[in-house]
Hints:
The chain is of the alpha/beta class. It folds into 2 domains: 6-156, GTP1/OBG domain (Spo0b-associated Gtp-binding Protein, Chain: A, Distorted Sandwich); 162-371, P-loop containing nucleotide triphosphate hydrolases (Rossmann fold, 3-Layer(aba) Sandwich), CATH 3.40.50. The protein contains 7 helices and 14 strands. The strands form 3 sheets. Strands 10-11-9-12-13-14 form a 6-stranded mixed beta sheet, with helices on both faces. It has a 5-stranded mixed beta sheet with strand order 3-1-8-5-6, with no helix packed on it. The protein has a 3-stranded mixed beta sheet with strand order 4-2-7, with no helix packed on it. The protein is rod-shaped. Residues 189-193, 220-228 and 349-372 have low confidence and may be disordered.
Amino acid sequence: MKFVDEATVRVAAGNGGPGCVSFRREKFIPRGGPDGGDGGDGGSVWLVATRALNTLADFRVNRRFAAKSGEGGSGSDCTGRGGESLEVPVPCGTRVYEADTGELLGDLTTDGQRLRVAAGGEGGRGNTRFKSSVNRAPRQSTPGTPGEHRTLRLELSLLADVGLLGKPNAGKSTLLRAVSAARPKVADYPFTTLHPGLGVVAVGPMRSFVMADIPGLIEGAAEGAGLGIRFLKHLGRTRLLVHLVDLAPFDGSDPAADAVAVVGELQRFSPELAARERWLVLNKTDLVSAGEAERLEKEVCAALGMSAGGEEGPRVYRISALTGDGTERLTRDLMTRLEQLAVAADPAAGAPSGATADEADGGAGDRAGDRA
Length: 372
């Protein structure tokens, strides 16, 4: 299914039912007094997150959602039936904005999470509500209040632990195919990836993480060149970024310059995202010699202001996504780092059950040997 990550919809809550003006008319009770009931409340519109959906494609067809209005009150102090609320399923990871103001109304990230986006109107009051010692036969009632009407902008951001970024043909889709069961399109021309994709990377028993692949960035993407930066928002939820650099670009460009261009576009899009932990992965080692790969690594690291390796410094890897060389160690170290970040965020949770103490501390120590 084609990935759809934005949609605009209109929602309308139900109106409250009007109150009733009525008087008791029973045998032997000629002046029974007022008995008009209240109107029922209108139904509200709720958005409900569900794992059963993974795109906003349905909202390209159905754009209007309305809840039922409440019914009017009746005699014998009968309150009108309330309008049925409407629940609209949306994919997990949907952000909801007010289209007119741009205000963020909610962020639906977990299965079953609910957000009321339009409140139903209140039912009107019947004439029973107005009786008093000085007004024993009131003939007034109130209409129900109207329900809320809103235009919403829905944005779907992928829920992933690791996000891949890089220039077109850097090997992001190939890497995703190599380490997961996902099968994104791979070809020898730019912009093969037109829509974001996800893959689950299994490292061991009870140890896995989700990796996201987005379309490639080129210089000037912030101004709309190529596919622009509209898909960068999918990296906003990730905890780690993996920057893939092609060591043998098909167009003969300089890998160091390509890496700097991607980081520049990332900074223009979001300084916060650019400051997130980012690992450098030099891809396509199968196309260059070991000596050439070492030289290019030094040039790319120097251009980005990074030190090549070191347990405390930035993570730098050399891999071949096509042959799988180096990918196992990369994914294992990513898993270990994600577990460390999870423990840091919630110390009470402790290390995941699938991780041993040695794995929690020893994943980074082997990186230098992997680059050799």
